[in-house]
Amino acid sequence: MEVLPPQNIGSVLIAHDAREGGPELAKALYNALKTRVKSEHIQFAGLEHPGLLAIHNIHKNYGLIIYITASHNPVGFNGFKIYCDSLPIDSETIKLIAYNMKRLADADFKFLHYSEEIFEQPPIEEIENSEYINALLSEPDYCHEKYILKIAIDGGNGVAGLIARELYEKMGHEVLELNCIPDGAFPNHHPDPSVPDNLMQLRKFVVEHGCDIGLAFDGDADRLGVVDYQGQIIGSDRVFIFLIREMMKFYKSYSDYDPAKPVHIVYDIKSSRHIQREIEAAGALPHLSKTGHSNMMQKVAQIEGALFGGEYSGHYYFKKDGLILNDAVYSGFRILRFIEEVGPEAFEHLPHDLMVPEIRIPYPRELVKGLLLHVKDSAQKNLNPISFTEIDGLRIEIEGGFLLMRPSNTEQKLTIVIEATSEEELCKLLDFTIAVLEDHEERLKDRAIDLKDLEPTKSKFGPH
């Protein structure tokens, strides 16, 4: 019932984020792994920023990295991010792990309960921040005359606070901190910068202290939120556009840059229509991917000449020295590199459409296929669609925008994303969504859909 045979593991790196229970899980994991791997081949880094682990791995080449985290999920949750040969395990491997765990539970397997007396405390081998900072600051810097920026960072009481200030100050900027002491209780707000309410504290702080930009991080510092100097939230699609422009400048600054060599950028199914246009305008080739951490990292890794990739959720994936770096502190670093050249008003010139905040409604996964068939049929009759994309749910493109419906990767929920060029087009797509869901609900024997959150979103649209 093994998922990862011992001969394929090699050396192992274990670390955890700030969540309560992380040290105990790490200790249990260390002792379990010792039954399969020699202890000298297991490194335990303790509480650590995962971007630092990735940079450390460039030279160490661990066969397996296990990071104990629940990322931006609520207090009380915990879990594991598992990387084999620097890439996250795929969905099929995750399903196999879940299947084997269920088999053990069904067989009344006697699990070994945590005990201070039984489990050996793993020795902590600290990794110096300088390893990460020096690696980033040694990258080509195309800017010679720079703005000195005043930056506010909201660490969300996660692990970004361990390293972000030190890095940004060594870039030459002034840094003010909010919630940068790791605390798994997340006492100030939930650590998810993709939710506007979680950025309220940072928005006020930026304005009150006259900052040029605010950067917010989730619990394990792989998701980024951005606030401009006016305290306005910069939507993830506009941050992505900003990064496309920055990364193309950065790429062209390399001494071995070859303009004849194609550059590829990956974006996910939820992304704004502006993303594809921006990639093409920058002279790169766009590649559409399924949503999700492992899907995006695998896609960026597989495409020769891929520069980086980005998601609607605020995750960005950079190809660096043969690895894929999903690190919001590094994303912030690249944004600051751009702004220190052009100034803090740069965000004012980015394009945007109207977009409803992502809608998630309870919906049984087994019913999604039938629903999407119904939605596609109804769209053909009522929306005059330009195209359908079905690599991950159903995305319907019309002249004035798009509608995406897809099952959540992590919950029994339906995810809906709507973008439009005008208020009229936005309302048309939202009205269609409500009507088609209500129509399909009537066809079901039980009431599987909860539409209570859809109607209020009509008043929430606008630039983001």
UniProtKB/TrEMBL annotation:
Keywords carried by this UniProt record: Isomerase, Magnesium, Metal-binding, Phosphoprotein
Recorded coiled-coil stretches: none
Domain of life: Bacteria
Annotated Alpha-D-phosphohexomutase alpha/beta/alpha domain residues: 3-103, 131-231, 262-344
This protein's record includes keyword Glycosyltransferase: no
GO molecular function, one term: intramolecular phosphotransferase activity
Cofactor(s) essential for the protein: Mg(2+)
Spans through the membrane: none
GO biological process annotation, one example: carbohydrate metabolic process
Record InterPro entries: A-D-PHexomutase_a/b/a-I, A-D-PHexomutase_a/b/a-I/II/III, A-D-PHexomutase_a/b/a-II, A-D-PHexomutase_a/b/a-III, A-D-PHexomutase_C, A-D-PHexomutase_C_sf, Alpha-D-phosphohexomutase_SF
Domain Alpha-D-phosphohexomutase C-terminal: 381-431
Family matches, as PANTHER family: PHOSPHOMANNOMUTASE, PHOSPHOMANNOMUTASE_PHOSPHOGLUCOMUTASE
Similarity annotation: Belongs to the phosphohexose mutase family.
Name used for this protein in its record: Phosphomannomutase
Species for this entry: Taylorella equigenitalis (strain MCE9)
